[in-house]
């Protein structure tokens, strides 16, 4: 059975100490299933180049350059749908989720464009951590049907491969993403942060906590300093990534 190749890979991955060995084994599994292309990629921030965050990959000639030239990363339905997904899904499932999206036509053009490069269909598996969506394993090429059990196995493989490759290729980032959160917030600071994340203004927070606006602003400044945030919006974003609020 094909699924045995995944089980064997998962059983051996922690004994592999070289990035190249892990990639060879991963590609062997994907070849067994008939997937021609793949990418193990860290989730990019708005200012980051997605291609600089590839931990491993094999894509059609010219497609990465085309993808960046057309700025598909901004509207890629598979990447956008990752933010809502807790498990793997097929590329084809992503488009219907954006029926009323103003970029829907461009999304469809991207999918048609990708087919010209041999990316007929595929799947994508999210990798989550304490700080939310951290990356994904995307696989595709010719049409391949995966059973529910195989989807579960690929989900598990995506997570293990992602963390193992990150550990070997960028131990500093790996440590940053897995280290214990060491931010000490007072009860009042946590309350103010939670209300801020709910969209409340300083005046509204002050009213709820029965404090003066000046005191609330003092808490906000303290939060920004402790979280090393540039402003209040940044403080909320960092707090979400650190798992301080949900």
Characterise the protein shown here:
With about 250 residues, the chain is an alpha+beta fold. Helices cover about 55% and strands about 15% of the residues. It has helices spanning about 5-10, 20-35, 65-70, 75-80, 90-95, 105-115, 150-170, 170-180, 185-195, 200-210, 215-225, 230-240, and strands at about 35-40, 55-60, 90, 120-130, 130-140. Strands 2-1-5-4-3 form a five-stranded antiparallel β-sheet. A hairpin with a 2-residue loop joins strand 4 and strand 5. Helix 10 (about 200-210) crosses helix 11 (about 215-225) and helix 11 packs across helix 12. The protein is globular and about 65 Å long. The two termini are about 40 Å apart. About 25% of the residues are buried. The mean pLDDT is about 90.
């Amino acid at each position: 059975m094909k699924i045995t190749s995944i089980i064997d890979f998962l059983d051996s991955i922690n004994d592999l100490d070289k990035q190249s060995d892990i990639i060879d084994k991963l590609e062997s599994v994907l070849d067994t299933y008939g997937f021609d292309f793949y990418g193990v990629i860290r989730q990019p921030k708005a200012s980051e180049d997605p291609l600089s965050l590839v931990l491993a990959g094999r894509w059609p000639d010219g497609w990465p350059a085309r993808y960046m030239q057309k700025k598909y990363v901004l509207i890629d339905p598979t990447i956008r749908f990752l933010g809502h997904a807790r498990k793997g899904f097929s590329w084809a499932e992503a488009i219907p989720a954006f029926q009323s999206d103003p970029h829907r036509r461009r999304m469809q053009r991207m999918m048609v464009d990708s087919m010209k490069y041999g990316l007929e269909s595929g799947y994508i598996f999210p990798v989550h951590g304490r700080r939310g969506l951290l990356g994904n394993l995307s696989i595709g090429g010719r049409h391949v049907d995966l059973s529910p059990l195989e989807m579960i196995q690929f989900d598990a493989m995506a997570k293990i491969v992602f963390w193992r490759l990150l550990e070997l290729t960028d131990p500093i980032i790996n440590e940053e993403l897995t280290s214990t959160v060491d931010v000490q917030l007072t009860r009042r600071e946590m309350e103010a942060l939670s209300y801020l994340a709910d969209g409340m203004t300083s005046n509204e927070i002050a009213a709820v906590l029965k404090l003066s606006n000046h005191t609330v602003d003092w808490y906000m400044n303290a939060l920004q300093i402790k979280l090393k945030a540039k402003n209040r919006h940044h403080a909320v974003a960092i707090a979400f990534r650190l798992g301080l609020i949900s």
